[in-house]
Design brief:
The chain has about 325 residues and is of the alpha/beta class. Helix content is about 35%, strand content about 15%. The structure holds phosphoric acid mono(formamide)ester. Phosphoric acid mono(formamide)ester binds next to α2.
Length: about 325
């Protein structure tokens, strides 16, 4: 595999989940594979889980890891061709991507959506520029529109916990005081399209995700109805897609409570705002899978890095 940019780069989800669970059972078994190889993690935005789990995954595979907070410490990058660079941008991505490629065998990038310019966000400017100009494989650690390492970790968690061949899985919007991107929700939807599940999306009107991603998925605007007989409730806030980047509602009726959840398992990618998105009683209960989801981020990243390492010349 050359790059891991979206869930669509997964050729067989059940094989990948099986591989991840095998790596989880014995994380150091392929330590020799990454010996002498370096991964460079470039963060244009904050992170806890992605930063640490991807490093841990690389260490399990015997790799050396370089991490750079590019957003705060790198030169401001120019992305457009032919620009007269007489303003604030000090370096063109053409040079930057080729230079980082001299130091790394794999480059992983986190670059969130701006939520102010839909067209620019959808062009995946940072990720695609590195893909174009870097000479080594690229891994998406959450871009403007997708978070495929999270989605693979979620698939691993579902596989570990589910007792049914076709569980009912609900993706629910929940309130949040700030405008958040669509990346986690998008990739979860794409991953569910590869799963055998009764999948329902619930959100207030105005919070429809990109229809090119949801592709006719079952949408139920009544959250309680959507939760009926659910086995898993995956919760995430996202801002409006049609009224791009806007917070249209902070309706606390959508906060996840124990009563609403019933017997379902609770999933969230973290970080999560307690008693806004979800009640303490849910997060602190046995029904919450959030810590195991975070744990599985290591094996999600390790599966991806292993596949890339195996395909390096
Ligand atoms: N879920 C997730 O990507 O967490 P971080 O933003 O902390 O990396």
């Amino acid at each position: 595999m050359k790059n891991y940019l979206s869930v669509n780069d997964i050729d067989n989800l059940s094989d990948w989940v099986k591989e991840a669970r095998n790596l989880k059972a014995n994380p150091n078994q392929f330590k020799a594979l990454g010996e002498g190889k370096t991964i460079c993690l470039l963060f244009f935005n904050n992170s806890l889980r992605t930063r640490l789990s991807t490093q841990k995954a690389a260490i399990h595979l015997g790799m050396d890891v370089i991490v750079m907070n590019f957003g705060g410490e790198g030169w401001a990058l120019e992305y457009n061709d032919g620009t007269v660079m007489d303003q604030g941008k000090a370096e063109h991505v053409k040079e930057a991507a080729q230079v980082v490629s001299q130091y790394a065998d794999i480059i992983a990038i986190r670059a969130f959506a701006s939520l102010t310019d839909k067209k620019k966000d959808e062009s995946e400017e940072v990720l695609n520029a590195f893909k174009k100009y870097a000479t080594v494989p690229i891994v998406n650690m959450e871009s403007s529109i997708s978070h495929p390492l999270q989605a693979l970790a979620d698939a691993i968690t579902l596989d570990e916990v589910s007792t049914k061949k076709k569980p009912k899985v609900v993706l629910s919007w929940a309130p949040h005081p700030r405008a958040l991107p669509h990346a986690v929700a998008n990739s979860f939807v794409e991953m569910m399209q590869l799963q055998n599940a009764d999948f329902v999306i619930t959100h207030p009107k105005g919070y429809e995700l990109d229809s090119r991603i949801t592709k006719g998925a079952h949408i139920e605007h009544n959250q309680n109805k959507a939760f009926e007989n659910a086995d898993f409730v995956y919760v995430k806030n996202w801002s409006s897609y049609s009224d791009y980047g806007k917070v249209l509602s902070e309706d606390k009726e959508w906060t996840i409570t124990k009563e609403k959840l019933g017997n379902a398992k609770f999933m969230h990618c973290l970080p999560v705002r307690r008693n806004i998105v979800v009640a303490d009683a849910v997060l602190d209960s046995e029904q919450s899978l959030v810590i195991e989801q975070a744990n599985n981020r290591t094996y999600s990243a390790q599966t991806v890095l292993k596949k890339i390492l195996e395909s390096l010349p």
